Amino acid sequence: MENNLRALITGASSGIGMAYAKYLANQGWSLDLVSKDPSRSQEAEKILNYSRANNFLADLSQPSEVEDLLSKLPTPNLLIANAGVTKYGKAGSISKQEKTDLFYLLCNGVIDLIEGFLPEMKEKENSRIIIISSIAAITPMPKSSIYASAKSAIYSYGQSLSYELKQNKIPVTVSLPGYVRTDIHKKAGLDHLKKNIPSWMWIEPYQVVKETEKASLKGQSRIIPGLVYRIVSPFLRSSLCLKIWKRLTKKR
After folding, report:
1. Would you tell me which of 38, 44, 53, 218 could form a disulfide with 13, CB atoms 3.0–4.6 Å apart?
2. Phi, psi (rounded to 5 degrees) for 15
3. Domain 6-249 falls under CATH 3.20.20.140
4. In contact, 85 and 187? CB cutoff 8 Å
5. The pTM is what?
6. C-beta atoms surrounding 145 within 10 Å
7. Both ends of the chain: CA-CA distance in Å?
């Protein structure tokens, strides 16, 4: 059934973004889907096969391309900031440009995108904002310090924005997934994680979408998808958890 609501999803060609697109398509939303890679975007368009979806190409690690999106896309009712990559490397081993691009993609660019649309979102009914962060925002991540710090920063921003926009009745929900079955680790050269991390620690993209959407509609400021992660989250900073994580993620 069609409705009059419009959603903008970044990183929509795979993983959580694609799962969210399918979920909202089933509810008749109009979709503006942003991806970086042309071939992946075309493939995703075929898979989704949805007449009310518009596909756009943009490298959201570049401020000029975020500005371009803001100039040509209509203001959404629901903004889902999902685009992201992970970066693994020892402190001091990542180039200045890589650090700049990664932090903009995961944090500063998300802020620019949200705040670019925010004035008009405040004037619309049924406006919501969802930020896909990571469990890395609330736990130390050795050799992923830039990724973790960016995810932590956007988590803090989202929490602050959630309180600020209550007066405007715009829910802001930050989702903090753990290991999700997507290709993000493969693209980062971390294929070994699929073998090392126990199956019970992985969750499906659809589960992230379902729990995140439920939390957003309830007006919750954050959600940790997956019962296992919610149970262990208070202990993630403990020395024992860090030792276990280090052992599991070590390349063999």
Report:
1. 44
2. 55, -135
3. no
4. yes
5. 0.88
6. 18
7. 50
